[in-house]
Amino acid sequence: MFDQILFIVWRESVEAILVIGIMHAWLVQSGTRAGLRYLWGGVVAGLVLAGLMGAALMGANTWLTGTAQEVFQAVLVLTACLLITQMVLWMRTKGRTLKAELESGLASAVSSGSYWGVATLVAIAVAREGAETVVFLYGMGAASLQSGGIASFSLAAGLGFALAVATFMALQLGSRLFSWKLFFRVTEILLLLLAASLLMSGLEQLIGLGYLPAGLDPLWDSSWLLDDGSGLGGLLATFAGYRAWPATTMVVGYLGYWVIVASLMKRQRKIERVDQRRQLTARARS
Known about the structure:
Blueprint: H1 2-29, H2 36-63, H3 66-94, H4 98-111, H5 115-147, H6 150-173, H7 180-208, H8 231-240, H9 248-285
């Protein structure tokens, strides 16, 4: 769990820092330094919004009891799986134009003389990343709170944020050695594996509660080869959803997840190729 928390905070923090870095650089280079205090005000507002969302989720967890609490946690875990997958697909299509879209939004806000527009833009961007992090970490945070492991949770989150700052600086300083494109491609794969792991956890909980049929359980036993409780097996269980004794429903859900993700990515690539051909045709005609 420590590794999962560190990775999620690291990846989401890098995205948030990247957005803030783009906005900060644009304001400085365009000579509109007056907007910087609105920028940092927007960052604070975004963090407050994300914190309020986290407090609301933890409050709901405290309010619910027994089976309702377990169902709520399973639903949040499955929601996190869907959000991570959606975020990866969104970044694959919007990542290339993110910088241009942010700068266009900033230019529009500054030209209208409203620096509050800058604050709103950055607050929405930071709150979005923060809210995603809250949902992704909700289940792990609730479990840490109940087991008294909140110190370990906080340490992992702190290290993840520190690592994100270091990663951003390294990528900025060593752009010839490191590539943002490669960084996002590698972390996208890790995020999809993590989403599949969350899916397995959610299905496992719903099967345990009797809301889903298990089918043949277990479908196989590979614990003699790779135990999922420790070592490499434990790491694969945490980051890729590996189970040594999976129920049939879990295996079907896991395979179904990757078939759906592969289909959506194939559809994305097809749409991108069509768009590229249209752009080339339009340029040739002009």
